[in-house]
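Human: My hope is that you can spare some time for a protein that puzzles me. I am handing you a single protein, as its sequence and its fold in C-alpha cell form. Could you go through the record with me and say what the backbone is doing? Take your time, and here it is.
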Amino acid sequence: MSLLRNKWIVLLFNVMIVTLLFTVLAPVYDLFHYINQLFYIAYFYLFVGILLWVIRGGFFDAITYSFRRFSNKMAKQKDYLDDWKQKPLPSQTIEKSWLSFFLFHGAMLMIGLLALLAVYYNM
C-alpha cells in the first residue's frame, strides 16, 4: 500500500502500462499509436475521477435517500433492524484521497498526452 501513496511511482507505473499496451496492441510502432494508448489510460483516470467528484459533491444523495425511503415504505415485509435513515449516503462513502488520486493521475497523463500531440503535429 505504501507504493500507492507515492504518486510519482504510480505515474511511472502507468507510463509503463501504456508502453506495454503499445508494444502489444499497436499494428505499427509510431508516435500516433503511442498517443492513442496514452489517451485510453489517461481518460480512464479522468472519467473515474470526475465521476467520483460528482458523487462526492452530493449529486446522487437525494436520489439514493428517496429510493431508500420508497423501498422501506413499499416493502411488504418490514425489516425493523434496517435503519435506512442512518445509512451513509454516496457522498459520505467516497474518500478524498481516492478522488485526488484519480484526478492527479488523469491530469498528469493528459499533460503528457498534450505534449506528445504537440510534438506529433510539429513533425
